[in-house]
Amino acid sequence: MMNRTTGGYILMILLCGSALWGILHVGSTLKAPPDLSGQWAVVETGKPDRQAVIQQSGVFVVLTVEHEKPQRIDLNDMQFTEHLSKSDRGTELRIDSYRLRRERKDASK
Fold it and tell me: Which end of the chain is more exposed for a tag (fewer CB within 10 A), N or C?
């Protein structure tokens, strides 16, 4: 017959294992936001391109355009899939009034 201590340890192991399984099961359905960090070109009709830098931590983005104050943006606040488009030439992103473009470095990918 099993004593109380052994039963307690078995119960703790089962509870911890069940909790870990639950966390992994729920976490497997989550999707990471796309990587936007790096150098971008601000595309404006009739004007020379300006440089922009995006720094990203998860869904939080800091957009710094040349000669302008940095903007903090939460990607959860915008319908993100409507603002990002990818093609063979690169990636285009619309944030507020900016149209940003990042050229693809390796066209074979």
Answer: N
